[in-house]
Specification:
This protein has a single domain (about 10-90), classed as Alpha-Beta Plaits, CATH 3.30.70. By secondary structure, the chain is α+β, with helices and mostly antiparallel strands. It has two helices and five strands, in the order βαββαββ. Strand 4 and strand 5 form a beta hairpin. It has helices spanning about 20-30, 60-70, and strands at about 10-15, 35-40, 50-55, 75-80, 85-90. The protein is globular.
């Protein structure tokens, strides 16, 4: 199981649209997750858009929360200090 509870590790979720990012924001405000909406990091894509930086949660819980909220996402990356982003999963229907 991939976790990110270690200091500095963050999961970054990208979304197919601003609508989905805002849906994530509305849904996750009530949940006990440490997250922040930010522009998509340049290490991932040069296109504009919104992403969510999520800390203190394992990938499996994050994915379950996304499904429960009915929020579509594109990809989830693991960001660790001093390392390149690692693609963990892509959305599949």
């Amino acid at each position: 199981m991939i976790g990110n509870s270690d200091t500095g590790k963050t999961l970054v979720v990208t979304f197919p649209s601003t609508h989905q990012a805002l849906k994530f924001d509305r849904s996750f405000k009530a949940r006990e997750l440490d997250y922040q909406l930010t522009p998509v990091p340049r290490q991932i894509s040069s296109s504009c858009g919104l992403a969510a930086r999520v800390r203190g949660v394992v990938l499996e819980r994050l994915l379950a929360e996304l499904v429960a909220a009915g929020t579509e996402y594109e990809e989830v990356y693991l960001f660790s200090p001093g390392s390149k982003p690692e693609l963990l999963t892509r959305y599949t229907e």
